[in-house]
Amino acid sequence: MGAIVVDVMLKPEILDPQGQAVAGALPRLGFEGITDVRQGKRFVLTVEGEVTDAHLAQARQAAETLLSNPVIEDVVAVHALDDSEVSAAAGAPA
Amino acid sequence: MGAIVVDVMLKPEILDPQGQAVAGALPRLGFEGITDVRQGKRFVLTVEGEVTDAHLAQARQAAETLLSNPVIEDVVAVHALDDSEVSAAAGAPA
């Protein structure tokens, strides 16, 4: 089973209150040196068999039409999940 | 300015209603061949200057303590955002 990752982030000019809340909490918890946080979405699409170019094209189209709101969000990446990521996702944290 | 990406996904055994809703909508919109969808979170942390190992260690710790709920979520990746991704995030969709 292959998997495709679609990353969606708010456009840079769109306010991100969730990210700001995280950025505000980090110094209170002792994390210094992180100046900004933006929060987005990550989709993992499972496909039958190996990931083909057709699957990727379909994922790209789904990303633009269903997985993101093009008014406020950008699809920043659509790529096949490599094996190291699959094992990380299934087991130990990175 | 460097940036670090933290990817957080629900653990495989945790029900993901958002992902299921997307998976249910895909065939109705004509996307076939995608058998499952899981939705997670993607954080982009901006740091001052270049991304160092210290920044990554801090991001990893923040990922485990603030950005994810370890009861239901896994931190699947913590890595520096490379330049190609930065330009993609700033401009054209991938």
TrEMBL record, chains A, B:
Tagged with keyword ATP-binding: yes
Keyword vocabulary terms for this entry: ATP-binding, Cytoplasm, Ligase, Nucleotide-binding, Purine biosynthesis
Keyword Cytoplasm tagged: yes
Pfam family, one: PurS
Record GO terms (molecular function): ATP binding; phosphoribosylformylglycinamidine synthase activity
Entry's Gene Ontology cellular component terms: cytoplasm
Pathway: Purine metabolism; IMP biosynthesis via de novo pathway; 5-amino-1-(5-phospho-D-ribosyl)imidazole from N(2)-formyl-N(1)-(5-phospho-D-ribosyl)glycinamide: step 1/2
HAMAP family: PurS (MF_01926)
Protein name: Phosphoribosylformylglycinamidine synthase subunit PurS
Gene name in the database record: purS
